[in-house]
Write a structure and sequence with these properties.
Catalytic activity: L-tyrosine + H2O = phenol + pyruvate + NH4(+)
Helix content: 25-40%
CATH architecture of the largest domain: 3-Layer(aba) Sandwich
Distance between the termini: 42 Å
Radius of gyration: 21 Å
Largest sheet: 5 strands, mixed
EC number: 4.1.99.2
CATH superfamily of the largest domain: Type I PLP-dependent aspartate aminotransferase-like (Major domain)
InterPro entries: ArAA_b-elim_lyase/Thr_aldolase, Beta-eliminating_lyase, PyrdxlP-dep_Trfase, PyrdxlP-dep_Trfase_major, PyrdxlP-dep_Trfase_small, Tryptophanase_CS, Tyr_phenol_ly
Family: Belongs to the beta-eliminating lyase family.
Strand content: 5-15%
Order of helices and strands: HEHHEHEHEHEHEHHEEHHHEHHEEHEHEE
Keywords: Lyase, Pyridoxal phosphate
Shape: globular
Mean pLDDT: 96
Length: about 475
């Protein structure tokens, strides 16, 4: 019999949760325009909107806040963060930013120009937005299996090398400033990239003089999947796997709000001195001095601690297993979802879940709203709303995946909370054909999923 394990930590402080009535949740939905991003936190019972900045910090991290050096330049806390990044990820040069999209902005301004093509293993919303704002065109070079929620592949986030070779042949290496490799791939369901694929992608790019830049936001989760699934890595510590992963890249953007176990902060890292010099000149325009980059000294202290804590093998095993615990309950109940379960979230296949709704009725948005109405659980749409519109035609982009993301914050909830989530999803699936579609009443021009507002196409989203 397989022995069960528990959280590799004990709870030292608690935060009470509000549990609203269904009528109160209905009013909150109406007030927020049926957009879960616009719900007030106090109206949410279990918050699975994102794992970004929603982590619980350790006692060591809280202690580190008290010794933060808030000097404007040359902060001691900055040198601790720089040391942690160099030791854990292996890069020579580091620039702090207020969060990951600050690093994306710097990288895109420095590397992307009008007419460039930026291949990546599936788009991410803010990454693609920054690339496009600087004149680039994103090109998806992820393997085809990543777009099929039902296909079970160990490394669904792999770069399709043939797609990448074809793009290089068509547009020329000089039109490709870098290849963006996400580890793991968020929009594919938190799916990992194999070490072999990282190595082969890097070798191909080196041959053509093209940089490889990681979106390293959930790199520790990717390292765990390599340890679990790829031959030759089962007995290797996570920290060693991580260093090898990063050796097959030229730099990265990083949101410290995920795997680095903090609530704010990020960085841009690289090995090229010339790019680092240009980055230092630009960071003062958008972020702050190169020794704080939009972060307080105390935040840099906490992130440095969090980077080291994130590579503890016991921590990351529990992290992945908790996500899998929720996913396996839903799979056992026959819920349509992305398989295999990814690293940071369980992704419901809203297109199959609500197969009576047309894509233009925003099924993932409707399902996320219905989940909140049913149980107070907040999740996120990842489908047609997130995909935005075609720049040329103005039509909705129709991604193959229409998903609701149940994103698990790190060290925040117990498996009892996961049981509550599972019960709600299973109940909604039982009465799924009662869930109505939505229409968009307000649409922002960029990254519309954050602030768009909706209303039911019929009288009620879901009858009580």
């Amino acid at each position: 019999m397989k022995r069960r394990t528990a959280e590799p930590y004990k709870i030292k402080a608690v935060e009470p949760l509000n549990i609203l009535t269904r009528e109160e949740r209905q009013k909150a939905l109406e007030k927020s325009g049926y957009n879960t991003f616009l719900l007030d936190s106090e109206d949410v019972y279990i918050d699975l909107l994102t794992d970004s900045g929603t982590n619980a910090m350790s006692d060591q991290q809280w202690g580190a806040l008290m010794v933060g050096d808030e000097a404007y330049a040359g902060s001691k806390s900055w040198y601790k963060l720089e040391k942690a990044v160099r030791e854990v990820y292996g890069y020579k040069y580091v620039l702090p930013t207020h969060q990951g999209r600050g690093a994306e902005n710097l990288l895109s301004q420095l590397k992307v120009k009008e007419g460039d093509y930026v291949p990546g293993n599936m788009y991410f919303t803010t990454t693609r937005a920054h690339q496009e704002l600087n004149g680039g065109t994103f090109v998806d070079v992820v393997i085809d299996e990543a777009h099929d929620p039902d296909v079970e592949v160990d490394f669904k986030g792999n770069v399709d090398l043939n797609k990448l070779k074809t793009l290089i042949a068509e547009v020329g290496a000089e039109s490709i400033p870098y290849v963006c490799v996400a580890v793991t791939v968020n929009m594919a369901g938190g799916q990992p990239v194999s070490m072999d694929n990282l190595r082969e992608t890097y070798d191909l790019c080196q041959k053509h003089g093209i940089d490889v830049m990681y979106d390293a936001t959930r790199c520790v989760e990717n390292a765990y999947f390599i340890k679990e699934r790829e031959q030759g890595y089962q007995n290797m510590p996570i920290k060693d796997i991580l260093l090898e992963m990063f050796s097959y890249s030229d730099g990265c953007t990083m949101s410290g709000k995920k795997d680095a176990l903090v609530n704010i902060g990020g960085f841009l890292a690289m090995n090229d001195e010339e790019l680092y010099t240009r980055s230092r000149e630009l960071v003062v325009v958008y972020e702050g001095m190169p020794s704080y980059g939009g972060m307080a000294g105390r935040d840099m202290e906490a992130m440095a601690k969090g980077i080291y804590e994130s590579i503890d093998d016991h921590y990351i095993e529990h992290r992945i297993q908790q996500v899998r615990y929720l996913g396996e309950q839903l799979m056992d109940a026959g819920i349509p979802m992305v398989r295999p379960v990814g690293g940071h979230a369980v992704y419901l296949d809203a297109k199959a879940f609500l197969d009576h709704l047309d894509r233009e009725q925003y099924p993932a948005q409707a399902l996320a709203a219905a989940l909140y109405l049913d149980s107070g659980v907040r999740a996120m749409e990842r489908g047609i709303v997130s995909a935005g519109r075609n720049k040329e035609t103005g039509e909705n982009n129709i991604p193959k995946l229409e998903m609701v993301r149940l994103t698990i914050p790190r060290r925040v909830y117990t498996n009892n909370h996961m049981d509550v989530v599972a019960d709600s999803v299973i109940e909604l699936y039982r009465k799924r054909h009662q869930i109505k579609g939505l229409k968009m009443d307000y649409e922002p021009p960029t990254l519309r999923f954050f602030n768009a507002r909706f209303s039911p196409k019929e009288v009620a989203l879901l009858e009580s």
